[in-house]
Amino acid sequence: xxxxxTFNAAEAEPRLYEAWEQAGAFKAGAxxxxxxxxxxxxxPPPNVTGSLHMGHAFNNTLQDILIRWHRMQGHDVLWQPGxxxxxxxxxxxxxxEMAANGEPxxxxxxxxxxxxxxxxxKVKSRGTIIGQLKRIGxxxxxxxxxxxxxGAAGDPDKDSGAPNxxxxxxxxxxxxxNKGLIYRGKRLVNWDPHFETAISDLEVENIDTPGHMWxxxxxxxxxxxxxxxxxxxxxxxxxxxxxxxxSIATTRPETMLGDxxxxxxxxxxxxxxxxxxxxxxxxxxxxxxxLIPIITDEYPDKDFGSGAVKIxxxxxxxxxxxxxxxxxxxxxxxDTRGHMRTDGAPYAxxxxxxxxxxxxxxxxSENEADAINLVPDDLRSLDRFEARKLVxxxxxxxxxxxxxxxxxxxxxxxxxxxxxxYVENKPIMQPFGDRSKVVIEPMLTDQWFVDAExxxxxxxDAVKDGRVKIMPESGEKVYYHWLENIExxxxxxQLWWGHQIPVWYGxxxxxxxxxxxxSDDLQSFCASNSEDxxxxxxxxxxxxxxDDNPNFLYEVEDRQTSKGLDERTEVGIWRDPxxxxxxxxxxxxxxxxxxxPEETDELKRYFPTSTLVTxxxxxxxxxxxxxxxxxxxxxxxxxxxxxxxxxxxxxxxxKMSKSVGNVVDPLEVIDEYGADAxxxxxxxxxxxxxxxxxxxxxxxxxxxxxxxxxNAARFAEMNGAVGNDGSLPTPTATVNKWxxxxxxxxxxxxxxAMAQYRFNDAAQALYAFVWGKVCDWYVELSxxxxxxxxxxxxxxxxxxxxxxxxxxxxxxxxxxxxITEELWGNLGERQKMLIHADWPTYGSELVDxxxxxxxxWVINLIESxxxxxxxxxxxxxxxxxxxxxxxxxxxxxxxxxNEVMIKRLARIDSLSKTDxxxxxxxxxxxxxxxxxxxxxxxxxxxxxxxxxEKNIGKLDKELGGLRGRLNNPKFVASAPDEVVAExxxxxxxxxxxxxxLRAALERLAxxx
Length: 1008
Fold this sequence. Notes:
43% of the residues lie in helices and 19% in strands. It is an alpha/beta fold. It folds into six domains: 31-175 and 582-645, HUPs (Rossmann fold); 209-429, Isoleucyl-tRNA Synthetase, domain 2 (Alpha-Beta Complex); 503-575, no CATH class; 690-842, Orthogonal Bundle (Isoleucyl-tRNA Synthetase, Domain 1); 854-935, hypothetical protein PF0899 fold (2-Layer Sandwich); 942-1007, Helix Hairpins, CATH 1.10.287. The strands form 13 sheets. Strands 6-5-18-20 form a four-stranded antiparallel beta sheet. It has a four-stranded mixed beta sheet with strand order 12-13-11-14, with helices on one face. The longest helix is centred in the last third of the chain and has 31 residues, at 977-1007.
């Protein structure tokens, strides 16, 4: 049955995908040759409640290209799929749906019931992104799908045979805890007041936001004064005045309540007289006004603002480091909701303690400092931004705002100078939670940490000694920078959805008769389950000689429940309510998804894995942590190659954003253009280290490329050029020898490019070969042989064309799997599907030098004639006479062998030899001779010149404007990067267009 005229992607894609799945084409080891090398990729697990975006489509397309390429080579291939439980995102989605349904809230429901509800949400949502990944043709072994909370309590698929990821995660935590690699401590973290949890840097969006910088006076204690002197760069005194204060500037006045010091640079002479003195925080009840010391530290920039900075260690990351270095107490001001604290003693008592600390009369531990609430009574319970307004009003009303002059209009409209508080209106880089969209608060909290310094060494060595290659190389520098300056890794989150921390607490034992409920004295019991934790606790209390009653110990819900027991006869231990950060569990993805700690067959066969394809934005958050964790847990690298790519941007290089309106939905692209066009576009823009610009016009062009291939296949089918059994033809005709050589060349280029992860080079080589060499030249050049040749020549050409079309399908399949598989099935009876066809190994032995030279000579001549005609607007269908001089024997033979085809394709009426070209000829140089096109009498030379000169003049104006912008340092420095890049791209395009017009003008000058 004849092929359809067009490829119906919408109908064919789901049908073909189902056929692959039913045939087991994606299974681990499918199509593997005996003794083959293994090749494995771990999918970067998408959020279980997520949906496909362009980043997923691009990333997974590159993985699928590699997987299909290796599978066709007969390697033992596994593409391991799975999803991430995505703690904060999944909890958010679930709570949002619960609210929409009118269900009880999380807290009303309770932890166990809520966790069961999230499992329901997971089951409901899980198939969404998996189904969407299938739409782009992802050929992962879905039968092995893993989940980063698989096996946890409540998992409905617990007995399905999927990896028990939960037990693996808990085992690693316990082992690392016992080795001293995990600890609990107080540290500054990104705190999301909406979700009431710590979040990672990756979950923080820094956004330029309109803001204010307030300038305030901190009076010196006891009314002390000093001489404040300012000097210019040459050391000349520009200002001298007696001051009784030091001024600071802040964008967050509410945090002044927690100041522990004011810092100045050691070399700042202005403040040298008052270093070590105490200053008054200008807010709070006057009778309890706190004093803090002036200290020196390298952090303040003496040339920025006043050169003095307030140090609020519990609410600022830079201040935290200063406080740690200087032993400055860190006072936390807010609760988990971002409201000013209400707990603890009244302000008067708290301020008195802080005052004695400032005066050196006592010291506080971190926990003791954290327990003190320094929020004045009238500000307690207020939202942090409401408190900010009151703090500013109180300071200003007391006359402690720095004042400046401003011009205003009086009641009669006259401009007058007035004194006003110094408040700068300026944009501020504000941190927002990427999911909650609320302002993130740096917060000093108790969290669990991995002591990353103790496990980072092997991860650094693995890249330095070449066992792991990061591409592009610039990624290695970033990797080294992060790991060589690594901080403790916060692995706890204040959520309910996730792997609950496997640590239980109980009161410390003071003596046989008394338990301690001080937080510093609590006893920890780390165990894989509650039974083991109770056993450890029993041993501890028995050894402490606390009680002889064997039933005195049991597990309770929380600390408050335990404190309510009769402490003379009962002890209750309770589990840490926090869960592990998803980066901790996903850091174990390579081994966990393969069934570790069980010695599974897949773990033995496919670990260490081969290539990781992921975004450069998670090089530290995920890639580096997988490196550290696998080396720490099993002493093996997780993969040997890391391919990093950037964000997929729009056609102009701008970041996709819903607010901007330039987000591209990959499913809509597939609906309009087909998955193959989107995949080819992904490969074509995947230049190593390049900017990923998604251009819809290019995607449309690649759909047209698929149509071109389809039409060439239809031509082959209509002419009996199908059914190749994989054997190499042995042609005699020059054109057939030539196309086999071209096929061999592109096979080598594609393999070399793929081996070096240059997907764009592979795509470009295939595009040029399939469209240019096969669909255009070979199809046209073969027509005389198919239509007018004898039976032997026709059969030879049919066999050659059938082989060439098949090779096009094989070489294109990893990038364009759907249309190639459809054509493969349409063009003959096959022993197996294209997805498992043998990848070719032929090479330069198929290149016939004589045929190559002759056909390239012919193509060059035809293209040159066409170009010359197009430059000067010769009517497309007009056949013209051509002259030739000095044509050598090889050139003459090439002409004679291909005269009919050359004349038809170049629209040549006749060829005449001449000793010299007459005036009015456009000349064309070829190897071994020159051709002339007598065009003076065919076109209006003067009119063409005028047209070209007019267009060149218009272009020159545009070029002048573009060059002027790009030569302006202010434009280059201040304009957004994408705007500058767009201007440079426009300049290059306009310059190329101008060059073509000038070449055409020169061609006209040659004619006359």
